[in-house]
Amino acid sequence: MQRRFRSGISASSGLGLSSLSRDELDSIHYATLQILQDTGIKVMNEKALEVFHGGGATVERHEGFGIVSIPAYLVEESAFRSPHTFVYDARNPADDFIMEPNRVGFTTFSGCINVIDPHTRELRRATKKDCGDLLRVCDALDEISVAARAVNSTDVMGQVQSVHNLEAILNNTGKHIFLGADSVRNLQVMVDLASASVGGREIFEKRPIFTVSVCPISPLTLGENACDVIMACAELGLGILILPMALSGGTSSVSLAGTLVTHNAEVLSTIVLAQLIKKGTPCTYGSTSTILDLRFGTSAIGSPEYGMINASLSKMAQYYRLPGWVGGGATDSKEPDIQSGYEFTLSATLSALSGGNIIFGSGVLEQGLTMDYAKLIMDAEMIRMIQIALGGVVVNDETLAMDVIHEVGPGGAYIAHEHSLRNMRSQSRVNLFDRRSRDDWMEATQGKSVRDRAYARAIEILENHEPYALPGNASETMKEIVDDYERELNKNKKV
After folding, report:
1. Which of 28, 252, 278, 341 could form a disulfide with 234 if both were Cys (CB 3.0 to 4.6 A apart)?
2. By the 8 A CB rule, do 147 and 139 touch?
3. 272 and 421 assigned to the same domain
4. d(CA 468, CA 412)
């Protein structure tokens, strides 16, 4: 194929790491435009096919699906129409998160099916209680900026699971929430729950406290349910988080650049659909992409490629001036050990330095299968260190300290100087990690490991932290909504 599109949107920014040059960003953009126009996207939804056709795309019909070819102008217009900055409204206004350039926040991995029990240290299936408990811990951690569904409520199956997840989350955090919906009806019930949690539908519509995640199917496919949810979100005025999971070497090219192209095409085609339904629908450029380790057949989220892909996709989000949600901090390790620490630091730092607005992956083990309370606490400590590093070295009259240096002079001491006392809080501080002498460490911790202290801290939070209060009898109302939905589903099954 010949790359012929040269009308890209120029808007890159970063926080210290340029994983891709401007020419490389352009090349990925132009290649994506050509793929969207010449190869197209498989769309498995009749209404979506009609929307694409009405918006100027070409639709080639097949049985049960269509191949949609999207012209370059429509792609670029849609990316421009999606808001470049907006606020993720939180139930607790103090936790509102502004999606804007150079703002970096963190959250947990999402959708784990297992959990390591903080009391017994045993691996087991995650429950609805775990879904709420983990979000209670996240609510207490300033390092966690927004709330993701850390685990699935595996003790509640079927269509009602995501509704139970949301109920558990709303009862345990006041932060903005990200989670998926299985169907339009499912989404409607979730809106009812969120409305109850803030005191009514009118309040929710002014300040929508959750964003809906949707997942294109790699390679280059928009499924039926995903299309339904995308279109419903646009109609309802809800934000959309677009989360392709391309696996390099499996569902995308083994070359990372090729993976970036197909991933980008999946995100942009979703944005086009959303903007055709309603101009100005808030869309977040997301990523869960990594490599498929062809030796073991596993998605390697602790690999350096995971960090490289997500750092690069942070730059693609900035290229289109879109908020970015990317992976970072995940691990393939089965326990919170040295491997998990190394892998967290590698990918989380790469994504942060690249300017990812939200970096998800905290607390996770085992290729995204298992959530661990201790790792979540340990990751929060590391997040604080990364955030300090992002600030860089501050250079001004106060920090240059020329008068202080002159006053102390050669051979003098700074420790008791007023300048040191005035600025000592600017230094990094550790809570879980330890910088004391061995004797002081032993006296303070009785020699307990970081892992043990992290579990203890999680249990302390669970026992003592009170999340932002729900209004009136909101908790009871939400339970009634969930119960009514279950009765509705059971009735439909019998019919």
Report:
1. 278
2. yes
3. no
4. 50
Within a domain: 128: yes
From the DSSP assignment, how many helices (H) and strands (E) are in the chain? 18, 21
Closest alpha carbon to 184 in 13, 281, 314, 47: 47
Largest CA distance in the chain: 89
40: its two tokens: 């197209």
Q: What is the pTM of this model?
A: 0.93
Sign of the Cα pseudo-torsion (251, 255, 260, 261, in order) = negative
Same domain, 59 and 131: no
- Please indicate, yes or no, whether residues 149 and 69 belong to a single structural domain of this protein: no
Task: Write the single-letter amino acid at 185.
Answer: R
Contact between residue 145 and residue 133 where contact means Cβ atoms under 8 Å apart? no
- R_g of the chain computed on alpha carbons: 24
Kindly report, residue by residue over 113-172, the tens digit of the pLDDT.
999 999 999 999 999 999 999 999 999 999 999 999 999 999 997 889 999 999 999 999
Q: What is the pLDDT of residues 371-423, one digit of tens each?
A: 999 999 999 999 999 998 888 888 999 999 999 999 999 999 999 899 999 99
Q: Say whether both 334 and 284 belong to one domain.
A: yes
Strand, helix or coil for residue 467: coil
Structural domain harbouring 37: 22-79
133 and 87 assigned to the same domain: yes
Residue that terminates a domain, selected from 79, 99, 116: 79
Residues 387 and 266 in one domain: yes
Do residues 120 and 150 lie in contact, with contact meaning Cβ atoms separated by under 8 Å? no
> Do the domain assignments include residue 17?
no
Q: Which two tokens stand for residue 241?
A: 């988080």
Tens digits of per-residue pLDDT, 52-109? 999 999 999 999 999 999 999 999 999 999 999 999 999 999 999 998 887 999 999 9
DSSP string, 197-226: HHTSHHHHHHS--EEEEE-PBTTTEE-HHH
> How would residue 495 be classed by pLDDT, with cut points 50, 70 and 90?
low
CA dist 435 and 428 (Å) reads 11
Give dist(CA 474, CA 91) in Å, integer.
13
| DSSP code of residue 252 | B
Q: With contact defined as beta carbons under 8 Å apart, do 32 and 253 qualify?
A: no
Number of domains in the chain: 3
251 vs 1, 330, 370, CA distance in Å? 21, 20, 23
Specify if 300 maps to a domain: yes
The model's pLDDT over 167-226, given as tens digits with 9 standing for 90+, comes to: 999 999 999 999 999 999 999 999 999 999 999 999 999 999 999 999 999 999 999 999
pLDDT (tens digit, 9 = 90+) per residue, 6-26? 333 333 343 467 889 999 999
